[in-house]
Design goal:
The protein is of the alpha/beta class and 291 residues long. The chain contains 14 helices and 9 strands. It is globular, with a radius of gyration of 20 Å.
Length: 291
C-alpha cells in the first residue's frame, strides 16, 4: 500500500477522494487555497500542508483535483519546484489537452511523472467511492496508482498514451451533457401531461429509454432538489471543451450544440451553482409549469 498520498484541491471531488483514501488506510496529506476546505479535510483525517509544493515534497503519489487551467499550471510549477524525483501525479480534471500536456512537461523537467487520469462521476459518486478512472500515461504509473484508484473508484481503465484518458472523458461527457438534458426534457413533458413525476421516474428507469444519467439525476428532478454534486457550470465548462475538441477533430455534434445553448441559458438564469439536474427547473419555467 502507498504510505503517503497527496490531494491538491479539496473541493467536492477532492475532499471526497481524500476521505476515501483515509478510510482505505492511506496516510493522506492535502492542500487547498480555501481555509474552510482545509478545515473540513482535517476533520476527515487529512494532514494539511501549507502549499501544493509541500504536498509534493512529502508524498509518493499526488492527486490533482483542480478547478481551472490556471490552477493546474500553478500547482504543476509548485510541485515541480519542491516535489521529489519519481513522484507520480494524477491529473483528474477535465481540461483541454494542451493544458495537461504543458503541466506534464513542466513536471517531467523535474523527474516527476504526470498521468492524465480524468474521472467519470459526480460528487455523489466521489463520496461513494464509485468513480470510474480513465488513466493514460505510462503503464508503470498506472500500476503504481492501482491502490489509489481502488480507493476512489469502482473501476479504472488503462488507455495507453498520455491524453487518451481525456479523449475518453470528452466522449463520455458528451453523453452526460445530452442525457442530463433529455432526462429533464422527459420529466417536464411528464409534468405537462399531468403525470406524477415519481411514477414517470420509476417506469422510465424500467424501460429501454433509461440511462445512467436518468437514474442519477432523475430523482433530483422528481423532488425539485438539486444539491451541489455535479454543478451545471462545471458541466457547461466541460461541454465547451468537448465542443472545441470535436470541432478540431472534424466530428459533427448536433445534439451537443443544441444542449450547449440550453446549458448556457440555464446558467445565465442564475442556476449554474446547482447540480446539472436543475435543467429540469429551467425547462419547467420555460413551460410555465408550477408545482
Amino acid at each position: 500500500m502507498t504510505e503517503m498520498v497527496g490531494v491538491v484541491g479539496l473541493g467536492v471531488m477532492g475532499s471526497a477522494m481524500a476521505a476515501n483514501l483515509v478510510a482505505a488506510g492511506h496516510t493522506v496529506v492535502g492542500f487547498d487555497v480555501d481555509p474552510r476546505r482545509r478545515s473540513f479535510a482535517t476533520e476527515a483525517g487529512v494532514r494539511i500542508e501549507d502549499t501544493a509544493g509541500a504536498v509534493g515534497a512529502t508524498s509518493e503519489i499526488v492527486i490533482f483535483s483542480l478547478p481551472t487551467q490556471s490552477a493546474l499550471a500553478d500547482v504543476a510549477s509548485q510541485v515541480a519546484a519542491q516535489g521529489r524525483e519519481r513522484l507520480l501525479c494524477l491529473e483528474t480534471g477535465t481540461f483541454p489537452l494542451a493544458a495537461k500536456t504543458a503541466a506534464r512537461d513542466v513536471l517531467a523537467a523535474s523527474g516527476i511523472e504526470l498521468m492524465d487520469a480524468p474521472l467519470s462521476g459526480t460528487g455523489l459518486q466521489a463520496t461513494d467511492g464509485t468513480l470510474v478512472v480513465f488513466a493514460s500515461g505510462s503503464r508503470e504509473g498506472f500500476d503504481r496508482a492501482r491502490a489509489v484508484f481502488r480507493a476512489i473508484g469502482r473501476s479504472s481503465h488503462y488507455l495507453g498514451e498520455f491524453g487518451n484518458g481525456s479523449r475518453m472523458k470528452y466522449i463520455a461527457n458528451l453523453l452526460v451533457v445530452v442525457h442530463s438534458l433529455v432526462a429533464a426534457e422527459a420529466h417536464v413533458l411528464g409534468m405537462a401531461a399531468g403525470m406524477d413525476p415519481a411514477t414517470v421516474q420509476r417506469l422510465a428507469e424500467d424501460s429501454t429509454g433509461s440511462s445512467r444519467m436518468f437514474e442519477i439525476r432523475g430523482p433530483m428532478m422528481v423532488i425539485d432538489d438539486y444539491p451541489v454534486a455535479g454543478r451545471l457550470d462545471v458541466l457547461l465548462k466541460d461541454a465547451e471543451i468537448i465542443k472545441d475538441f470535436a470541432s478540431n477533430a472534424g466530428s459533427p455534434t448536433p445534439l451537443l450544440d443544441t444542449a450547449l445553448e440550453l446549458y448556457r441559458r440555464t446558467s445565465a438564469a442564475g442556476l449554474g451553482g446547482f447540480d446539472a439536474a436543475v435543467l429540469c427547473r429551467y425547462l419547467e419555467t420555460e413551460a410555465g409549469i408550477e408545482r
